[in-house]
Amino acid sequence: MSFEYAENAHSTHSAPNTHRDDDTAMALKIVVAGGFGAGKTTLVGAVSDIRPLRTEETLSEAGQGVDDTAGVARKATSTVAMDFGRITIHAGLTLYLFGTPGQDRFWFLWDELSEGALAAVVLADTRRLEDCFAAVDYFERRRIPFVVAVNCFPGARTYAAHDVSHALDLDGGTPVVLCDARDRDSGKDVLIRTVEYAGRMHTARLLDSVG
User: Fold this and answer.
1) CA-based angle 163:79:49, to the nearest 5?
2) Cα separation of 63 and 54, whole Å?
3) Are strands 77-90 and 146-151 parallel, antiparallel or unpaired?
4) Interhelix angle for 40-47 vs 184-210, to 10°?
5) 94 vs 30: CA distance, rounded Å
6) Do strands 119-124 and 176-179 pair parallel, antiparallel, or not at all (unpaired)?
7) Regarding predicted confidence, which is higher, 185 or 5?
8) What does the alpha-carbon distance between residue 175 and residue 122 come to, in Å, rounded to a whole number?
9) What is each CA distance from 40 to 96, 152, 160, 163, 203, in whole angstroms?
């Protein structure tokens, strides 16, 4: 298994720094999930301020009968443990990003990766929309707020957000946003929407619990 730091970082190549400069600094954990080949590794790498940690293996003939590569036949590697990145949204707010593996056989890692997460991003590929059903169900059952980010692949048919929401049978109010996982600004917008939505959800639950 290959544990490597990608070379396409946007800023410093130093290791994650968890030092808090003041009492208002906040670090939040966000999980990036979705189906195989949906763009999780790409998103984490595009937005990370540090060299993202990647745990990738080359797809081999041994996995052909296990991994469904329909629609992503050109994909040559796959995450087998996790992706990790870090982004500072603004002074005092840093997000730690944990990307999950997409194949069914690695789902046992999801519980540990999701422990303590504020929220999640579920990446969706409209060519294989059914592949993100499991992620949607996972976070709904665990009451972890999430945003569905539709990764707009070149040549793929574009659907309106409400059509995707209906197709996935999402709970009312769950945000659906369109994005390009390769683009830093687009990915950052998704993360901001995720934090804002999670904040509203956690506040509402807190008010319900004391009401």
Assistant:
1) 85
2) 20
3) unpaired
4) 100
5) 10
6) unpaired
7) 185
8) 11
9) 14, 13, 21, 22, 28
Q: CA-CA distances (angstroms) from residue 154 to 35, 76, 84, 88, 157?
A: 18, 18, 26, 29, 9
CA distances from 96 to 16, 20, 85, 155, 193 (A): 9, 14, 6, 31, 15
- Tens-digit pLDDT profile for residues 3-52: 344 444 444 333 344 444 455 689 999 999 998 889 999 999 999 999 99
* Residue 155 CB coordination number (10 Å): 6
**Backbone angles phi and psi of 95, in degrees to 5:** -110, 130
Interval 73-91: pLDDT, tens = 554 555 556 899 999 999 9
Question: What b/e sequence results for 55-66 when a residue is b if at least 16 CB atoms lie within 10 Å of its CB, and e otherwise?
Answer: bbeebeeeeeee
- The β-bridge partners of 129 are none
Residue 59 near residue 52 (C-beta atoms within 8 A): no
